[in-house]
Design brief:
The chain is mainly α. It contains 9 helices and no strands. The relative contact order is 0.11.
């Protein structure tokens, strides 16, 4: 019982450090200065914060992605989600995932630039996979065949396009983004004609995970 409590405490501490750093990332990117100031703003001594994130910026980016995935998964547990069809659930999950980061939109923009660096390609692929996998599981997906992959490949494209649209959306309440998302989902057919094209490996994007990979947030 104590071990679970300790893990929760550490997770909360890691959340606190990352969220304190994001306002500085918005202006400076994932620079050493932004990270150090974020550590200070979290209220922890720098040596202690550095020990919590020994992997530096890359580890903090991945933790932020997982934090947003967790928040999305929590939002998807609302009773009203159960009555939705699958397309509506996917739309709700993507929306919840983006809404988590509304206060940090400029940090998202700077993070995409960071992830676009060639050296960070594995990190970018890992974060993208974790997010779309979390979304599908939160929506109740239980597929284990080729559909497992086609759904995630399709959602990577939809999610990525929606993030880019959202970053430049100035409409009230991001209504233009949600309309764009609905158009994207309506155009996929939700059984995309990708099966034959996806018989070959997916460029390593999903290689670390099997079709039976469990939801990282499940018990």
């Amino acid at each position: 019982m104590k071990e679970g409590s300790d893990m929760k405490e550490l997770e909360d501490l890691r959340d606190r450090i990352v969220l304190a750093t994001l306002p500085h990332v918005a202006f400076e990117g994932w620079s050493d200065r932004a990270i150090r100031v974020g550590w200070a703003d979290s209220g922890l001594p720098e040596p202690e914060a550095a020990l919590i994130f020994t992997g530096g910026a890359a580890e903090m980016v991945e933790h932020w992605s997982r934090y947003a995935d967790r928040r999305m998964t929590e939002a998807m547990a609302r009773p009203e989600i159960v009555s939705m069809d699958m397309r509506q659930r996917i739309a709700a999950a993507v929306r919840f995932r983006l809404e988590v980061n509304v206060p940090y939109r400029e940090a998202v923009r700077r993070t995409l630039s960071y992830l676009a660096l060639p050296a960070n390609a594995p990190l970018a692929a890992r974060c993208a996979y974790q997010t779309v996998n979390s979304i599908w599981y939160a929506c109740g997906d239980t597929s284990t065949d080729i559909a497992f992959y086609t759904k995630r490949v399709t959602l990577v494209a939809v999610y990525g396009a929606t993030v880019l649209y959202w970053l430049d959306d100035s409409s009230d309440g991001f209504t233009d983004t949600w309309a764009f998302l609905d158009r994207c989902l309506s155009g996929t057919g939700w059984l995309p004609k990708l099966k034959e094209r996806l018989r070959t490996p997916f460029g390593g994007l999903f290689r670390p995970c099997s079709p039976r990979t469990r939801d990282p947030h499940s018990a």
